[in-house]
Amino acid sequence: MKRAGALRQVSDFSDFVSGRRLRELLSQCGPGEGRHVQASPDGQHLLLLLRGRLGLQPQVLAFPRLGTGPGDLERSWQPPQPPIMGLLFLQSPAALTSWVLAVISEQGRTEVWGFVPVLGWQLQQSLELCHGARARIVSICSQGSSLVWCEERPPSAAQLDPGRGAFRYCICTRALEVGEQGAHLGAMRIVVHNSPQYQVLASPQHVFLVPTNATFASVSMFLLIWCPREAKVTIVAPSGGFVHSEVLHSSDFKKLVFGSVGLLLSVAPLDIHTCALSSCGGLLLLSTQGTVHLVQPDGTWRHVYDLGGSCLVQGDPVQLKAFGSTLACVLAGVLYLIDLTSGRLIEKKLLSTKEVHFLGSPGRDEEIQLLTPMGIYCFSFSSPEEGGRPEPTLVEMVFEEACKYYQRRSLSSSQLTVEKLKKGDMFQAPIALSSILQHSLPTKERALLSTLSMDLQSYLSLELLKSCIVSASESEVDRCCEELVEQEVSRLLRLDLDRENLAYLNAVFNSFPKASWKAIRGSLQLQQNGDGLLVARTTSDIWKKVLGGPVPHWSQQEEIGFNGVVPLFELICGSLHRFKPKWLPRFVELTQQYVGASWTYSTKEGPEGGVPLYKRALAVLDRQRQRTASERELEIELLLCSARPKAVLQAVHLLIRLRRWQRVVEAAEKFSKLSPLLNKEIFTTLLAQFAQHRDLDPYLAALWELCPADLTVSDILSIVLQHLPSSAGDPAPFSAEGAPLTLALLKPLLHKVAQRQCTQDELYADISQACTPPPSKGRDVTPSCLNFTPDDCTVWE
Questions:
Q1: By the 8 A CB rule, do 37 and 372 touch?
Q2: Residue 596 and residue 588 in contact, taking contact as beta carbons nearer than 8 Å
Q3: Which GO MF terms does the UniProt record name (predicted)?
Q4: How confident is the model at residue 362 (pLDDT cuts 50, 70, 90)?
Q5: Chain-centre distance for alpha carbon 294
Q6: pTM metric for this prediction
């Protein structure tokens, strides 16, 4: 199992050539400024691309590590120079360093640079990717030694057609080989022409064509996956579950998607804010709602994680990168670490800066490196069994907390610092504790160190968050409050929810309802699966916290729970009722499933305390003064999802009162299978309704199938006669209001029951004849029920 450690600074740029200048360039942030930071494949160079800095021309700078070799790269261009579209590292086995750097401009001008340890950076060749002078590259990537790009080819004035304006792009590929004689380009191949604008991303085996904001709306509901080795294109529409693959016979875009147009018209457009490649060759998509999905090369896709938060807009800085099986995301100054295999949140940390770039670690896919204006930081994972000295932050936290403690108790006005505490002869407790943490823990007790380290890191993040709130602007206060509430809820769920902690949790929910809902949703991992059903990917410990605590006894006088404190289950139900009411019945059903798997209903020692969960959820609804139509529907769903006989009967009666007959019959068909007694109660109730009015006539065939086996013709006639509507002027069963009840409506049921009764009597007669002497002549053994026909009931006619 992965455990995240603290961020560790591995470089302050002092080990790079011109490190001070690198720090200054990273710290500068002006309006309209664009920066792109990238590390070389061997990790010995940092490449910095500066785009459009306050009207200046673009610049490419390379900062090598000390001892790598002489010379650093600083390339700038004289105006007019088109924008630089990308810095790509290409494989080059014939080169001295096995890789070269390609600097590509918007018009296709490509400069190939190589680094020689003795000479430094050398320009090897300048090439032209595009054939036309008016061509423009909008997106480019590399795959091995080949380049793949999306190229805009504006039509001439004579061929200008407004309908074809959105399909003036083409997807091109070209090999770029570097040898001892220099670099040269292979023949250009157009993969797709007459195409909309796409962003291209290349994995080792596939190329993903992702729609952008400029993509025509009618074709932005799917993406394309091209496999160069198999010459195959896969059309994927994740929101509609559509996947179609075909061999690339024609390079025309319209012919490529023509066979799938009918199916794609009903699919919603893709919601993409940021995309990145995964380590397994898939594509990671982050929506504007904060949801992360993984699209595999074969077109299958799955939900990974929901970051939550407010809606993202284009231009919001988001960093997304996969490190092995871990997804790292920086959003609004918060670092998220997510396990791509299980979809669980490993770690969430508030960073002191929003200017963060991810760097790859050569040979160490699982090691996460972050580049900030202050330096390079490493975030590595370790198992709980691993030993070693604790992080320096842990020891510093011990002395900082000791300073605060002793300062409060000191009578002196002088400020106590960590340095004084370490050097002085007094206050030996923190020094002893630090020594224990570093040296004296046995191997079997390292778990204590890990637990304490996590807690101290949590407190450190909390203090950092508080300081951010003090200095934050008004627009950032809400985000900081949400982060604070999330940390508090997560911390409380790790503790024993005694009365004090539960009262504090109630105060948090009452003061910050929306932030509390987001926090509890993240802790329980409440989300919808591919079938649209609510699932909860949480641990059994969290479920026990949800179901623990005293069960309140609601009354009309009390609007809060047990001694003014509402248990956690009722708090969650209240949040669901306020923000996601459609999820409430399914949440109660999930909770019942956990209860059924952990405790038996035959005992009252379970977490329900003898009160069914659906009644506890209904009690939350009962606190509302007036019940709306949607809340009545929610009440019915809660009663039905419990699958308890009394609750099901109550729901059936509510549906009858609302005269929703189709829903009544559907519920009867579903829940009559639970037990014969419940089946008989439901059928008797519906038969009584049938005798009173004609609203159930369209559903009689389904209703007669529910007839219990132990009901006789006499029982049915008795129920019908008891519930006939009374009328003073008309003879029963006729009524002056509405259509009368006729024998034709009841005849199929009576005939069915009579046949079943005769079959039972015949079986009984055969058993009796085998066990007793034969009857004397003239004795009639014919069952009396066989002599019954519904036509003999003249009273009905």
A1: no
A2: no
A3: GTP-dependent protein binding; small GTPase binding
A4: low
A5: 11
A6: 0.52
